[in-house]
Each structure stands twice: as structure tokens, then as C-alpha cells.
Design goal:
single chain; alpha+beta; BirA Bifunctional Protein, domain 2; Herpes Virus-1; Rossmann fold; 3 domains; seven-stranded mixed sheet; five-stranded mixed sheet; 23 strands; binds adenosine-5'-triphosphate
Amino acid sequence: MANYEEIFKKVVSHCKEYGFIFQSSEIYDGLAAAYDYGPNGVELKNNIKDYWWKSMVNMHENIVGLDSAIFMHPKTWKASGHIDAFNDPLIDNKDSKKRYRADVLVEDYIAKIEAKITKDCDKAAKRFGEKFNKEEFTSTNGRVVERKKKIDLINKRLNTSLSLGDLKAVKLLIEELEIKCPISGTNNWTDVRQFNLMFKTQVGATTDGATDLYLRPETAQGIFVNFLNIQKTSRMKIPFGIAQVGKAFRNEIVARQFIFRMREFEQMEMQFFVRPGEEIKWYNYWRESRINWHKSLGIDEDKYRFHDHEKLAHYANAATDIEFKFPFGFKELEGIHSRTDFDLKAHQEHSGKKIKYFDPEINDSYVPYVVETSLGLDRMFLTILTNCFIEEQLKNGDTRVVLKIPYILSPIKIAILPLTKKDGMPEKARKIMQELQLKFNCQYEEKDSIGKRYRRHDAIGTPFCITIDHITLEDNTVTLRNRDTMIQERVSLNKMEAIISENLNLAKYLQFKS
Ligand code: ATP
């Protein structure tokens, strides 16, 4: 793990050094769990959003977009269940005075047992060589079987206690497992208490007439309350979806791991409305489609896994997480939930307005069921960064830091570099820049040696650098350098544009089965 922690630390400082992410209000010593995206960060973030939007909205005739307000009528949150049930169980260590999520303490304990199983497997794989069969080993090896049994037992106890709201049982579990505070090393715990994660604020000039409002903890409810508006104005027929990208706010108890858990973050959500009884078919469809979307970016497939939920949220009848192997372990990246008709029905009851759909195919009206896909934009950003940050040993003994970001998502696509600042090269380079900048995000740079400039662009993930030199002025050829191979080739300006266009062809990425 130490090695992973080291890499993670490097990624965090790389983000700051190269203008991807800054701590919020840094000059005032920062604000925990809030971050600002710098010039390269905002480009990468926009590109991720755009990639998601294109695949979700533009490529589906039956999915449309929405941008709803962050402030919503307070009854929304009563109806959705957030006022009563959007809680996390918290626990404090009396010696270190540190606060934890009780369920996360138990989950971390389970992760340690899982790590032991992985070690057992690695050892056995070494011993048995090619003959090693992982499935057989994990289902027959006594020690592994015992460990797996223990995990199941702990999971069961945790899930049952949480669904019953039995916080005493959660504390008992923590005590029995002898889970200690990583800071004080003691198990001197307070009782477990529920903590509501919504931020409350007020609207109105005077305190008397003011109304309590909440900052939305998810974008989904903005979609639900607009269901009829959109269905009618866009003449949508079931099954259809509504997609939205926007900010969400949660007063997380323990905000850790950089942008993985923030108090202000962005979600990319799509709610898909279906006929009752067809929700599991569509749930399976979106489960498949979403993992294919992730794979389309070319990230190592072993780094993704599904985690099907045993403990379902109050609104769901099936749920899974797509987990990604971050440097700190496999963690949730995206949630796919079959939310039944819970939300629309609840809004119908609380608003007193009918929310029904007349289905001409079966000549009947009903409250639609919903399948949701919910991806954290910031977690997707972290996925890209932690996966693509590479320290590469070069043949000449040097090392280089390179962000091997999928080309389509790179903040800057082309660096335009005059070899020197004289002899008409900057003028020619700027002319080339003018021709390219509306098609690709380009950056002009003339400071420092060409080698240093290449390294700088490797470090921010620019896939192509073009160098303008004396020969360019004579025959309109440039040196085109590829980030990953570092191969430099002399090409004519026309050919260069064709090569770059081919590599940035969105269709090549988005041709996954969706
Ligand atoms: P977790 O179990 O990690 O708290 P969750 O199950 O509460 O997450 P959902 O309510 O399913 O998360 O939200 C959908 C997605 O929003 C998550 O998969 C995640 O990518 C993102 N997300 C949720 N909370 C945060 C947060 N505090 N910071 C950044 N992203 C978040």
C-alpha cells in the first residue's frame, strides 16, 4: 500500500503544480473538502462532461437534457425521504476526538481481510505457476474460505443493523471486531449517532419570514419534479430518459482522499423512465451500457468491478456500484439503481398533483418506474488522473512524468511550438495556431528549450506537439511529436491535421454498444 500512497501523494501535488486542482480558499489556509479546478482542470472536467453528454443525450433519441435549479421547494426533500433518512452513522473516538463513519470503519476492516485474501492468492499463484486456478483456489483453500465466511458474516450484521436503524448493534460490531482508531490506537468509542448530510440555508430578507431551504444532495430530484414538463413538451414516449449534470452538496462527516469525497461536487445523472415490471430488464441494460462507456476510454479493464448491493436504499429494488481501483482501493465510482416508482409517487402524494403517464401501446395510465445511472464527475476526474499518471523510465536513463489521458479528454490537444523566437518562426506558428484553434484546443508556447516544452506538455497530457522551424518556412512541413511514443515525424501541415483529426475522432471512442 505504501507505494500506492506515495503515487497518490504525487498525483495530488502534480494536480496543483500543473494547474489542475487547487485547495479552495488556499490563501486562508484552505477549506476542507472543497476544491477549485484550475485552467487544465476545467478543460479536463469539461471534456469528461462533454463525453458523457454526447454518449448519453446526443446518441440516444429517447434521452433529453435538463439543467434544474440547485434550490428546490423544501417539500421536495420531505417527499424524497432525504429529511428523514439521508443520514450517515457517525462515531467518535474519545481519545483522539476524531470522528468516523461507523459503517466505513467496518468496511475498512473488511477491506483488510480482502487484502489478505489477495496476498494468499498471489502467493499461491507463484507456487503453482501456470496451473493456478484462482476460482478453484478461493473456493477450496481452508484459510481463504474462512476469511470469506468472516467477511460475509460481518457484512450481514452491518447491513441488518443499518437497515433496522439499530445503532447499538453497529457499535457492538465495532467493539467485537476490536476496531481501533488509527490515530489514538484505542477502541474507546462513543455511541453511534445518525447525522443528516443535507446543508440547510435560508431564503428571504428577514429571519421571521425566512423559509428553510436545502442545498440539493443529488441532482435526481430536479429531474423527477420536471417529469411531466419534459414528457409533455418534448413529446417523449416511455421508455425515455432525462439527463442532467450539476452540483450536489453533502455535509460529509469525514471528507478524505482529495476529490473522492467532497462536500460540494458534481454529478452526471440520467433517470430512465420505464413501464412497471420492465425495470429489471432496463436495469440490466444500463448496467451493461455504463460499464461499456467506461471501457470505451481504454482504461485497464481489471480496474473496474461491480459491487451489487445487499442493503438496498429505501427507494430501490436493485442496485449496483461500478467500482474503480483507486490508489486507496476499489471504491464506488458510479451507482446504477432501480428506484421503482418511489420518487414519482412520493412527489405525487406530497404535491397533490397527478404524475401519471398514459401509455398508448397498452392503453393504460401508470406512474413510471425509474432506473438511474449516477456518476460523480469529480470521481471520474480522479479515475482518469490516478490511472494516467505515469513516471516513465526512458532508454537514455532519464525519467519523465506523463499523463497518458485518453486523447479525446486531454485538456490541450496540440502544443504549437516555434523552435526559436526569431526568424519569422513565431509569426508562422501563430498563423498555424489561428487555423487550428477553432477545431482543437491549442496552446502556443515559445519559452524554454524545445525539450523542456515537450516535458511540460507530457506532464499535462497534451497528445500532440508540433514544432515550427526554418524548414517550415520553406516547405510548410512541421515536426509532429506524439506524447506516448515520443516519435517525431516530419509531415506537411495538411497531413498533420489529418493525423490529429483521425486520432481525436469521437466516433472511434463512442462506437461502444450503448
Ligand atoms: P458513497 O457511498 O461513496 O458515499 P453514495 O453511494 O452516497 O457514495 P450516490 O448517492 O449513489 O453515492 O451518488 C452517486 C455518485 O455521486 C457516486 O457514485 C459518486 O461518484 C458521487 N458522489 C457521491 N458523494 C460524493 C462526494 N461526497 N464527493 C464526490 N462525489 C460523490
